Amino acid sequence: xxxxxxxxxxxxxxxxxxxxxxxxxxxxxxxxxxxxxxxxxxxxxxxxxxxxxxxxxxxxxxxxxxxxxxxxxxxxxxxxxxxxxxxxxxxxxxxxxxxxxxxxxxxxxxxxxxxxxxxxxxxxxxxxxxxxxxxxxxxxxxxxxxxxxxxxxxxxxxxxxxxxxxxxxxxxxxxxxxxxxxxxxxxxxxxxxxxxxxxxxxxxxxxxxxxxx
Length: 213
Prior knowledge:
24% of the residues lie in helices and 28% in strands. By secondary structure, the chain is an alpha/beta fold. The chain has one domain (17-212): Class I glutamine amidotransferase (GATase) domain (Rossmann fold, 3-Layer(aba) Sandwich), CATH 3.40.50. The strands form 3 sheets. The chain has a 7-stranded mixed β-sheet with strand order 2-1-3-4-12-11-10. The longest helix is centred in the C-terminal third of the chain and has 13 residues, at 200-212. It is globular.
């Protein structure tokens, strides 16, 4: 179990190298959080940079823009291949959409990395004005509920047999909606842990990366 709040510190001798897809979105925030939980972090904008990392984080942002830029920078197929080969990958918000095998309410030409067997509804919680914060209990994280930030967030409407549900909304009209999942070495949340001071989701992912190595 990941403790209630991971302490920042210097990188351990066997720290993994985690790439952050640096095409659009909350790149700096993820870099800071991953560094604070002990990972070496590198931005990834080109296929050659992808070859130098052990794992990848896909940040929140705008999923259709990330999809188009991944094609433009010739990263779509290389990332799909690395994911298929077992590379640990975590996506927050738009990153969750990019990891889904099916995107509902997306653009007709929108593509994803299709790593997790799930159907995700884009902007399911509403527009920017409908953004909100709420506690979410996350399987694998001890301590108090995670204070989750939802901004134009998706939710998961279907998961395949190999997908483990890590968290659901507990209150309000969206109670029961799936907002955190894991399938093998892949993890996704519909909220933005990078926008909080709580490092537990990033610590959980880095532990996953270390275990995969």
